[in-house]
Input
Amino acid sequence: MIFVNILKFLFGFALAIAILAGGGVVAALYFINRNAVTPNKPMFDNDRPPAITAGVKPGESAFTTTSKVKEKKDTKSQNTPSQKDKQSTEEGKPAKPLPPGAYNARVTWSQGLVLRSEPNTDAESVGGVGFNKKVIVLQVSQDKAWQKVRVVGTDEEAWVKAGNTKRTNE
Output
């Protein structure tokens, strides 16, 4: 009789340990799997495109409209063959004369470039120029690490890090 009671006690103890261990494993797997799922990307007000855009037809997004407007501007500028118009800015002001060795380029850095007052990273930031915007490279620093550019349309001149523009034939 005593032998049966000792077996019951040992079997109950082993069963309790097994249930606790199994429950711990299940709980650990649940929390590990919950933490492995990436959360949804938060949306902020400036991430959403504007709800109402002037001049947008129903069923057409604002982005396609602006690209069509840019295409129209590009074709208009190509239709004017005079050299004087090509050297003028978008506002109609005559462009400043270019130094020898200057060339047209486009910004290739996807985040755009910071315009600096001097050719070093500690210099004051005087503005910026966006991706794929037209610039005129006026000169290159002696160490070839910086380029002095003129932003087409604003005639703003400043220094940008070299290697972030691509020469164009425009």
Summary: Residues 2-36 form the longest helix (35 residues).
